[in-house]
Amino acid sequence: MAFINIVDCGACPDGKTLNTKAIELAIDKCVQSGGGTVFVPAGIYLTGPVFLKSNIELNLEAGATLLFSNDLNDYPVVESRWEGVKRECYASLINAYGEENISITGRGTLDGQGAFWWKIFRAKENKYPRPKMIAPYECKNVLISGVTLTNSPSWTINTILCDNITIDNVTIKNPYDSPNTDGIDPESCSNIHISNCHIDVGDDCIAIKAGTEDTKERIPCKNIVIENCTMVHGHGGVVLGSEMSGGIVNVAINNCVFENTDRGIRLKSRRYRGGVVEDIRVNNVIMENVLCPFIANLFYMWGPRGQDPDVCDKSPAPVTDATPAFRRLHFANMTCKRVNASAGYFYGLPEMFVEDCSFENIYISMAEDAVAGIPAMLVGAEEVKQKGFFMCNTKDIKFNNVTVVGADGPCFEIENSEDLTFTNCKSKENKANAPLIEQKNCKNCREV
Q1: CA-CA distance, 264 to 240, in Å (whole number)?
Q2: Inside any domain, residue 198
Q3: Are 275 and 376 part of one and the same domain?
Q4: Catalytic residue numbers?
Q5: Which residues on neighbouring strands pair with residue 47, listed in sequence order?
Q6: Which of 318, 353, 330, 342 is nearest to 443 (CA)?
């Protein structure tokens, strides 16, 4: 297998010379040898988009930076997915199409110079959607390990229609106010392993997706393990949806810390999107200074048709293949400190309840200096502060050993729900001297 140093192919580490051709040459030489390593030594290398091929490892030495061009002319237009729908986009910074055994490794840095792209986006001057940083498409056996990714133009890692993905020991840093700079977004992929990562971004830290109702291929995102990660800032710690028309199944989230992530575990979709989110297990997670730790919202209002009257209607609609469903969501052994708005917010469809969920060994304490906010984005939702769980259109939910400290009102406000049980649940330091549970239009919801 070949080992090709990009400097030997003419690359110049001055941060000014465009090295796209030199990197392409190094990749081509590896391909001609049947595969190998493209090595980036210490230095700053300006480049346009890179297109990896099968059996290629792009290895960045500590002290090496690939600095991506902010010249639109360097970015060809390619076909990809953008927000769940196939369309033409500017090429990502690192691309691979239909390849296998590709790797991005080392202790170096990819710098996307995102400020250039964020300015164009905010001015609505971009002709095509912004580049992502790393976006393999229909690839097998993808490894991203060790590198630091910063200033992404949009989503940082977006694997699309891929199988067997490992993302390990990666650091992602995008400014907290940078638009749509998600950390890791697997989309309609299978067998995904995300571990030991540190993520600090301007949107969702990890968002699991599977296309929208406008995506022809209904392909699930499945068999996902997320563990040993720290996530600071961002709109959500781990988010499922709202693009989930292909379904999201078999997700295990373990041993993670979320801090300042607005929301914690967040599921979102809406009528006519279809798809099922099921078999999600979250264990050993600590959250601090979050708006709301647990959200399952089937009236999500943002995006095309999100505020159409029939989508927002709170009365039952016919159940069809286009009715989304959330079920078998299980949360255990979690501590959530300095919660601002609400302990949890589940809002199912009246025709399709969120069902078969459990909360076990959960401790939630409200922030003394809480800032009011909207827990879940749906039409009619209002800002709240220091509220407990709100559960509407839910069924077969079990709360066991759940403690809520410092709530202003009932710890569990239940509406239009069935078969909710509460075992050894406690309210402490309640600001309103409210009852533990308050029910409205419920069946068989009780303490046991």
Answers
A1: 11
A2: no
A3: yes
A4: 203
A5: 68
A6: 353
For the entire predicted model, the pTM comes to: 0.97
Number of compact structural domains in the chain: 2
pLDDT of residue 166: 98
Categorize the per-residue pLDDT at 170 as very low, low, confident or very high, splitting at 50, 70 and 90: very high
CB atoms within 10 A of CB 206: 28
**Residue 257 structural domain:** 204-448
Q: How many other C-beta atoms lie within 10 A of the C-beta of residue 118? A: 22
Which of 250-277 are b and which e, b meaning 16 or more Cβ less than 10 Å from the residue's Cβ? bbebbebbbbbbbbbbbbbbbbbbbbbb
Position 390 in a domain: yes
Work out whether strand 85-90 and strand 77-82 pair parallel, antiparallel, or are unpaired.
antiparallel
Is residue 244 assigned to a domain?
A: yes
Q: What's the burial of 440, exposed, middle or buried (CB within 10 Å: 0-12/13-18/19+)? A: exposed
Tell me, what amino acid is at 22? A
Task: Tell me: do 399 and 323 sit in the same domain.
Answer: yes
Query: What Å distances lie between residue 413 and 1, 5, 117, 425, CA to CA?
Result: 62, 62, 44, 14
- The 10s digit of each residue's pLDDT in 316-327 is 999 999 999 999
User: 276 Cβ partners below 8 Å, 6+ apart?
Assistant: 247, 248, 249, 324, 325, 326, 327
